[in-house]
Amino acid sequence: ATSSTDTSFLSSLGIQDQNQGAYNGSWIQCTGEVLESRSPATGELIASVQMATSKEYEAVVAAAQEAFQRWRAIPAPLRGDIVRRMGNAMREHKDALGRLITLEMGKSVQEGWGEVQECIDIADFAVGLSRQLYGLTMPSERPGHAMREQWHPLGTIGILTAFNFPMAVWAWNSMLAFTCGDACVWKPSPKTPLTAIGLTNVIRPILEAEGFGALAGLAIGGNEDVAQAMIDDARLPLISFTGSTAIGKLVASRVAGRMGRLILECGGNNGLVVLDDADLDMVLPATLFGAVGTAGQRCTSTRRLLVHESLVEEVTNRLVRAYDDIVIGDPMDQKTLCGPLIDEHAVETMMASIESCKKEGGKLLRGGERAKLDGDLAGGHYVTPAIMTAENHYQTVQHETFAPILYIIPIKDLEHAIEVHNGVPQGLSSAIFTNDMKAAERFISAVGSDCGIANVNIGTSGAEIGGAFGGEKDTGGGRESGSDAWKSYMRRQTNTVNYTSELPLAQGIKFG
Ligand code: UN1
């Protein structure tokens, strides 16, 4: 299919016209309001979901808790084998799952498939990890004593995800959590409930065959009934939240107040630095993918282009020409580079940011308008991606607008670039384009970019799962996905074992 009007693939993912919003080993008959999911590409109703209330939420958490008690006792490599099978199920359904993301969220289908690939990749990573949950051994200061640490399963993990990566962020968390011996309860964005239901249907046969369906708890519900309940729920020792900085701060204070652990993935304000020796044939496509990919709705989207003053004119001219060629349209059509924004509110927010940037002195160089498309697409939320001139201190620029607006900001040299780059509240992703090895190393050094991700000669978005993903400052400090991010999903236990009949005390203390 090349059109968002063809929804015949939905049945292969078990999605019906009306669906239930809670799963705890089987789909639960919910008693909440009906949530409609509409395609951002056409405005048409895709299907509806009966939402969970606090009653169904309770049933999801209770079942997850029960499953956790059994799951934590299964050896990690055997847990990994089940994760392997979940990864294979996602492989088998990659085409339909990618289309589902595109249909419900509006990113180009290439990017929809890419997101499913991220889920598969993190599953593979987690399988390997299942034999590598290493603890350290330490020399004890006491004779005849051994000291070491072990990593034990933590409990039931609460996962709250955003609309823009409606599958991958759950997979980053859950594939590690399952391997680590944990259960999960997932609250997806109300903008992408069907994606969560389709993915759950793909993996649940594997868990259910082993009597562990409840590990993949799902609760699609309102703010009070589900989101706030999770945040305040002492049965969830870790809350992994992806969303805005404003909500992230509320989540952080409530979870910290009950001594819960947090993984926060909040906004970015990602800068791409172009030094005067940069290879512009690389800068252009990297900027285009970073600023226009996913219609500017990635946390890692390129928002600020910090260009050496001698290149501003050339880079701007070339970008403006490239923006003229961007195919805006049905994201299901593989020719499309830029699909719709998620909803009308997102379009209004983009227009408001462009207006306020103009008021502060910025100039709109290209795009920044509603794009009215014909036929089936007339009801979609399309815009033309915008390029603006701006200064870093503008309120509009300091703020993350989840839309394709690229601010071009001149810089004088590397030091100035680093200062401007770091001069925003967020700290997720960053990039520098240069052939000067010293400049590149300095940008990623302790006195360079203050972000969790800092790249050289590649753009700000499109990170691989093998590295830890996350950032500093208002981004929230969390790390997910690769490297040793798994440690957040386990509890560390330090063991000291005495294999003598003496009882010496540490620090040389004599007691009695
Ligand atoms: C996000 O936007 O929330 O690095 C995640 C990237 C993707 C993940 C983005 N791998 O762009």
Report on this model:
Strands 3-2-10-9-8-11-12 form a 7-stranded mixed β-sheet, sandwiched between helices. A 7-stranded mixed β-sheet has the order 15-16-17-14-13-19-20, sandwiched between helices. Strands 1-5-4 form a 3-stranded mixed β-sheet, covered by helices on one side. Helix 14 links the parallel strand 19 and strand 20. Helix 2 packs across helix 6, helix 3 packs antiparallel against helix 6 and helix 4 packs parallel to helix 5. It is globular. The mean pLDDT is 98. It is built from 14 helices and 24 strands. It is α/β, with parallel strands linked by helices and 512 residues long. The chain binds 2-aminohexanedioic acid.
Question: Per the principal axes of the C-alpha atoms, what is the gross shape?
Answer: globular
Strands in their spatial order, largest beta sheet: 3-2-10-9-8-11-12
The termini sit apart by 81 Å
Number of strands: 24
Q: Stretches where pLDDT falls below 50 for ≥5 residues?
A: none
Identify every distinct bound molecule in the structure, by name, code or SMILES. 2-aminohexanedioic acid
| Main sheet overview | 7 strands, mixed
Which bin fits the share of residues in helices? 25-40%
Average pLDDT, all residues: 98
Which structural class should the secondary elements be placed in? alpha/beta
**Share in β-strands:** 15-25%
**Quaternary structure type:** single chain
Secondary structure tally, helices: 14
User: How many whole angstroms does the radius of gyration measure?
Assistant: 24 Å
Fill in the keyword field for this structure.
7-stranded mixed sheet; binds 2-aminohexanedioic acid; 35% helix; 512 residues; single chain; alpha/beta; 24 strands
